[in-house]
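Lesson 9: reading folded outputs for more than one chain in a single document. The general rule is that every protein is listed as its sequence immediately followed by its structure tokens, and records are never interleaved. Here is the first one.
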Amino acid sequence: EQILDQENYGTSTKFYFIFIRFDFLWTLNYFALLVLNFLEKPLWCLGNTEYSCSDREYYFLGQLPYLTSAESLIYETIALIILLMHNLFPISYEGLSIYWKNPINKLEVILLVIMVVDLLAYVLYLSPVGYFSLPFRMAPYVRVVFFILSIIELRESIVILAGMLCTYFNVLALSFLFLLFSSWVAFVMFEDTGQGKTILTSFGTTLYHMFVLF
């Protein structure tokens, strides 16, 4: 509705239809980003000079061929450019004010910045100069997050899972409090008995036995 009230409604409509015309490309790019996680060589493989990742007798990582560093870099750069176009193109028909009100758009912009910085660090790592070592990359994990954000059903599943986790932690906290109380009662009750002097000798020991019992 906010877009309909804009003065440049005709221009916004034109840009919107251009955007949805490339839906197939946007969707294909998300799958390409996910597939890249299985085709690029992991950093620990690049740093291992004793064994090659293609040595299936030492590393059994499936039969998919690994891309070279140059091929992986070209692949990732093209996919990232398409991803930038997909996520920033709505500004042309929504406007920056409407675009920035959506929390998902804000999250995607933050993730895009992380991916760009990560890619630049990876380029420096692969360069002949090699100023620094790169212990790990954020991009493989961010790609999965982008894939989840691109599918509404997956986003809703994550929200439901987050709600279930809150309930789970509440039940876990109550169970732990019950365990502490039961252990204290057992320690006090058996303190002057034979079992208390041989088995339940301290509150920590009683807590351990009660945990095993439960």
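And here is the second record, again sequence then tokens.
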Amino acid sequence: MFRAKLWFAALAMGLLAVGALAAKENVKKLSTYGYVGRQGGVSLVVDMDVARYRGGKQYIPLLIWLGSTENKTLHAERGSFTLVDPKGNSHPLATTEAVTQNYGPALVSNDYAYLRTMPDYARMIYLSCQPIRHVAFFPNPAGRPGVLYDHVELPNHTFFWTLLYFANPAGKDPGKYTFIYDDPGSKTHIEIPFTIPWSKN
């Protein structure tokens, strides 16, 4: 009986390890600063172009796209996203109040302004999907999207993009970060490992 329990425990650990490895194997570099991770018909893109200029700040912004062509509904809310820093520390999505106080509305507005200069390269991933507009986990203080919209339901063949902020006590660490999206309701879990090519300015 004891050996059987050990065998089942080892099997469970092995399946978890294989699942984690498979999740990371489905990650590809999509652009100079962007990576895409997939689980079935669900695609998640993480871009750190804006983040590379903010290594000296308490928070870093990550631009994401999330969408699905599967016959299921995804959900995205503040608890759906986690960032693991190079030191192994997990950081939940920051609160809007903390970002306003410790990062500043002017920088948030500047981040949104910078986004308008970037090519929408991830759109090619979602050509068969309809956009869900005005999603804003962190509203733009000086323009659109200007209203908090952080409980998102994504039916089949829809996607959205949004800017997310995470605490970054690691500073300009050259090591590996991991962005995690987890939606237990749809049994979707995607992990995207990446490094940030910090700007020297």
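What the second record shows: The helical segments are 2-25, 96-102, 105-115.
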